[in-house]
Design a protein that fits this description.
alpha/beta; Rossmann fold; 4-stranded parallel sheet; 16 helices
Length: 389
């Protein structure tokens, strides 16, 4: 399943107008004649962080509701993959490396067993955080007599550099436990539901820079919903919000690129070619959500020699399939799907905090729960989706 076609690029301001600053965009937004609530989903965890840290929700008119979406790869990484990584650490003589956030993601295990890679490290496992894929190569090169496993979870922006390493060639002692996901199929899933929880979409800037804004053209073309690509500064986010609100009021939907300094038509051709050379597109499981068609990356057959699961033939207990969701009481899945706000989870701020996370949304810097906590929201609330924060 692929998305193609040209993105419709209509300007939020005319070429003759000066580009407003953040205050100017806010003034324009407040001047719009809104008469009812407009729900706008921001897909990207980076967008949610910028919105929360800049206090944009409090600065916007009360009829505008900003909903965090499924843009946290740590949050949706299948629990089975986390569990498999932990089992590899204890049952194989390996060094396991992963991006820092992944080390704290909890798996569902019996009490007393290590429930995260961080706890596996504390129990004596050789687990190391890395900040870039090349660090995995460096560690493998420095330890040629030891097997190194790179647990690679991420969306297109982090999976493309992994593809580059694979195409270049990796040391023979390095293998990949891949948990890469594609972003737009999750949004397509939400829009295909009977009652989508949003009226307009802010599309992710960095993913669009890699894959091209055209991937998001299905939102207005197939669903008649306003959409705009945004960057991560308040100016770009506010410009995108103004664009989708203006579209909503006018009753005409298109895809606006409000991050044109970085996002170009066609995306990054080199990155896309590398992804195509290293990976196939497959149906993939998202934690707490289930299988989403054409939403995952899988190693091509010619790269089978770097597939960790094939190299070590790790046997996963069939009973794990029943344990592969969120922990009991955790509402991360509904947070990711935009069904509830983070602080509407019963565990938020009580059993679940960044110091002692129950679910993955409180772990990552791109997780909505962690972002809300970091922005100062400490208490939960009983109201459910549909209430404006």
């Amino acid at each position: 399943m692929k998305r193609s076609g040209q993105a419709v690029a209509e300007r939020t301001v005319s070429a003759a107008e000066p580009i407003p600053d953040a205050r100017g965009w806010l003034e324009r937004i407040h001047a719009l004649p809104l008469t009812r609530r407009v729900r706008i989903m921001n897909v990207c965890g980076g967008h949610e962080r910028s919105i929360s840290m800049a206090g944009l929700r409090g600065a916007l008119p009360s009829l505008i509701e900003l909903i965090p979406g499924p843009g946290c790869p740590v949050c949706v990484c299948p629990e089975e993959d986390v569990h498999a990584a932990i089992q590899l650490v204890f049952n194989q003589d390996i060094t396991l490396v992963a991006f820092g956030d992944m080390l704290r993601v909890p798996a569902n295990v019996p009490k007393g067993e290590p429930r995260s890679l961080q706890e596996a490290h504390a129990a004596g496992g050789d687990v190391r955080p890395i900040a870039s894929p090349r660090e995995a190569v460096k560690i493998a090169q420095q330890n040629p007599d030891r097997e190194v496993v790179f647990f690679a979870a991420g969306f297109e922006t982090t999976t493309a550099p992994v593809a580059a390493l694979l195409v270049e060639g990796v040391p023979p002692n390095l293998s990949l436990l891949l948990s890469g996901r594609r972003t737009w199929p999750a949004v397509a899933l939400l829009l295909g539901s009977e009652e989508p929880c949003f009226d307009a979409l802010i599309a992710p800037g960095h993913v669009s820079a890699v894959m091209g804004p055209e991937e998001w053209n299905f939102v207005p073309a197939e669903h008649g919903m306003p959409a705009a690509v945004a960057g991560f500064e308040p100016v770009s986010l506010l410009a995108a919000l103004y664009s989708v609100l203006r579209q909503h009021l006018a009753g005409r939907s298109f895809l606006d690129n409000c991050y044109s300094a970085v996002v170009k038509r066609g995306g990054n051709p080199t990155a896309r070619q590398l992804l195509d050379r290293a990976f196939d597109t497959v149906d993939a499981n998202w934690r707490g959500i289930g299988t989403i068609p054409a939403s995952g990356f899988a190693l091509k057959d010619e790269l089978a020699q770097v597939d960790t699961l094939r190299r070590f033939r790790l046997d996963i207990d069939e009973r794990r399939k029943r344990a592969g969701q969120m922990p009991p009481g955790c509402d991360c899945a509904r947070v990711v799907l935009g069904k509830i706000y983070p602080n509407q989870c019963a565990l938020y701020g009580k059993a679940c905090t960044p110091r002692r996370p129950v679910g993955p949304c409180m772990v990552s810097d791109e997780g909505a729960c962690r972002i809300w906590w970091s922005s100062g929201i400490r208490e939960g609330r009983g109201e459910r989706a549909g209430s404006h924060y």
